[in-house]
Amino acid sequence: LEQDVLAQIAAATDEAGLDAVRVGALGKKGSVSLMMRSLGGMSPEERQVMGPALNGLKDRLGSAIEARKAMLEAAALDLALASETIDVSLPVRPEPKGSIHPITQVMEELAVIFADMGFAVAEGSDVEDDFHNFTALNFPEGHPARDTQDTFFMKPDAEGQRKVLRTHTSPVQIRTMMSQTPPIRIIAPGRVYRCDWDQTHTPMFHQVEGLVIDRETHMGHLKGVLQDFLAAFFETDEVVTRFRPHHFPFTEPSAEMDVRYERVGQAVKVGSGDQWMEILGCGMVHPNVIRNCGLDPDEYQGFAFGMGVDRLAMLKYGAPDLRDFFNSDQRWLGHYGFSP
Ligand code: PHE
């Protein structure tokens, strides 16, 4: 019997087969167990001889099974290791990585620069109503900017109201003044929409609105904030700007600010040249706007500005065509260092 079981153990090629052999010999109804049970019917003399003999057999078979089991496990491990080998000398397969879009990157930079100057970030929504986008901002009825030419109007809703895609971030001025008490110092970055398409216009673009409302704010503060901002953003004091009188219904006086630049080959360069790019509109908040928000214009006044983020990005990164920013062309993004 012993030779027979040992042969079966040696022949077992996997753990399941080996276990079947174990059950056949040492299990409850196994051959060895049955012999052990027969000890009860033996004479004391027989039992004295057979007892130790059977126990010895049981131990020997048990250790033979353990040894075989260890061997099978080791072999299985070797097999797994051999089949899962990694050749660390192979070159790495290039894997394209995502990166932050240049416009998002610039918006984050702006938020950091203005945070240093004490501005908090405020938010509005892309879909606005006529009141916040126009009326509260002192747009007269029939003002050309309300015209369908520039504004994307939504279908009338259940109440017959025609919402718009906000044409600027200035409605956030209204939302902020109606919900906070001065002193107010916020910027509002976000998307805005106008029906327009050329080298420096896309139907969706980005602005950062700025608003300061306090008791003794004046135009000098406005200019100082903008100059400090430009020096920090372009990382130089060489930026040449010009302040041009302008008109906005919601500021008085109003101005636009241009940055001097030139085209060098396919790129755009700031600080030299004879071209001007308009980067923002600004002014002292109109008393009507302050009144429309429930504040007293004799007590409070302040300034506001709205800058074109995309234009700032063009100037900073030297990209000549704004439309490229929204074409999702990996080669373009790579060329301007925005993706690997
Ligand atoms: N909202 C104006 C625009 O879109 C910019 C602006 C903002 C002007 C704040 C003055 C004050 O052109």
Automatic annotation (TrEMBL):
Answer yes or no on keyword RNA-binding: no
Entry keyword Metal-binding:
yes
Question: What EC number(s) are associated with this protein in UniProt?
Answer: 6.1.1.20
List ligand-binding residues for Mg(2+): 252
- Where the record annotates domain Aminoacyl-transfer RNA synthetases class-II family profile, the positions are 113-340
Enzyme class name: ligase
- Domain of life from the UniProt record: Bacteria
Q: How is the cofactor bound?
A: Binds 2 magnesium ions per tetramer.
Provide an example Pfam family for this protein. tRNA-synt_2d
UniProt xrefs under InterPro entries: aa-tRNA-synth_II (IPR006195), aa-tRNA-synth_II/BPL/LPL (IPR045864), Phe-tRNA-synth_IIc_asu (IPR004529), Phe-tRNA_ligase_II_N (IPR004188), Phe_tRNA_ligase_alpha1_bac (IPR022911), Phenylalanyl-tRNA_Synthase (IPR002319), tRNA-bd_arm (IPR010978)
Question: Which PROSITE patterns does the annotation name?
Answer: AA_TRNA_LIGASE_II
What GO molecular function annotations does the UniProt record carry, in alphabetical order? ATP binding; magnesium ion binding; phenylalanine-tRNA ligase activity; tRNA binding
Q: How does it assemble?
A: Tetramer of two alpha and two beta subunits.
Give the HAMAP family listed for this entry.
Phe_tRNA_synth_alpha1
Task: Specify the protein name.
Answer: Phenylalanine--tRNA ligase alpha subunit
User: What species does this protein belong to?
Assistant: Maricaulis salignorans
Quick one: which gene encodes this?
A: pheS
